[in-house]
Amino acid sequence: MTTTAPPRMLTGDRPTGRLHLGHYVGSIANRRALQHSYQSYFIIADLHMLTTKNTREDIARSAGNARDMVLDSLAAGLEPDLAVFYLQSAIPEVMELNTLFQNLVTVPRLERVPSLKEMARDAGKEEMPYGLLGYPVLQAADILCVKAHAVPVGKDNAAHVEIAREIARRFNHLYGETFPVPELISAEVPSLVGTDGQAKMSKSIGNAIYLSDSPDEVRRKVRGMYTDPKRVRADVPGTVAGNPVFVYHDAFNPDTAEVDDLKERYRTGRVGDVEVKTKLADAINAFLDPMRERRARFEGEPGLVERLVVEGTERTREVVRQTVGEVRAAMGLDAVYAAFTAESRRPVSA
């Protein structure tokens, strides 16, 4: 009797800080929902981190950030017996795949990826580093090294996944069917505006509500949220569409009747920002409370995160080694050296 292995899912984050509500709506909610249907690989993308943060201090901080990321992920609902967490830099075979894949995509194609310029700008880079231009190629290596079938990521990574799909198709066309063409799993809420109302929620900008924030921190951040700047008093009709406070209500407040009432009174100047924000803070804290409980439970297990990362990395490396072997065989690279080896062992004629 043969059994079919479940399909694989690959996603993850750079270890540059704690995970926030934007991560949750953009990807973690899907990771949580899909983990029972897929073999779930979660990358701690410390090589990707180097494209914008590569000082010795950045690298030294990455271990603590990675630990927080794993705890945040477990707190948000990923199960330790299902999730395979692994450290990208500890699997050198991924870099070999990256080198091979670089030849299957052009520079103009990479230059059309809109998020790369945004990443360079957010990192204060006047010119784009070579590694940042190749970010989607390394990401393709991440996805294809475990032969992922599904990639649940946020809106800003959608174009990167399309590069991975193109590379998979190109490789299969040139060398034979080797990779599944990964499917992008889109989020119901594609992105979340930051608390400043000026850009998407981001660790680097500092406009984020973190999954690990305390109730008081949430209330403080919500009180300071950007709202309708033209509304100087509670009796002035306000704008709901695009208003960050109501974007968050829609995303995190399950009481739709309350939200609809707040919107109607806001439009007609019959509710103040204080009430709207107080109820939003209550809703977000109610949303985060179960995560706080889970995080405390997992933090109470000494060595859990370290064990998950080490075991997950070793397990993933075995999978990646097998993939690289298949890639080299499909391309004929091993046959080239084998021919030299065979010739070198031939007896020399007298």
Automatic annotation (TrEMBL):
Put simply, this protein is called Tryptophan--tRNA ligase
Q: What's one Pfam family the UniProt record gives for this protein? A: tRNA-synt_1b
Q: Which GO terms describe its biological process?
A: tryptophanyl-tRNA aminoacylation
Example GO CC term: the record gives: cytosol
Reactions accelerated catalytically: tRNA(Trp) + L-tryptophan + ATP = L-tryptophyl-tRNA(Trp) + AMP + diphosphate + H(+)
Q: What class of enzyme is it?
A: ligase
Q: Which PROSITE patterns match?
A: AA_TRNA_LIGASE_I
* Keyword annotations: Aminoacyl-tRNA synthetase, ATP-binding, Ligase, Nucleotide-binding, Protein biosynthesis
Q: Recorded GO terms, molecular function?
A: ATP binding; tryptophan-tRNA ligase activity
Source lineage: Bacteria, Bacillati, Actinomycetota, Actinomycetes, Streptosporangiales
UniProt EC number: 6.1.1.2
Source domain of life is: Bacteria
- Asked if the record carries the keyword Chloroplast, the reply is no
Q: Which family does it belong to?
A: Belongs to the class-I aminoacyl-tRNA synthetase family.
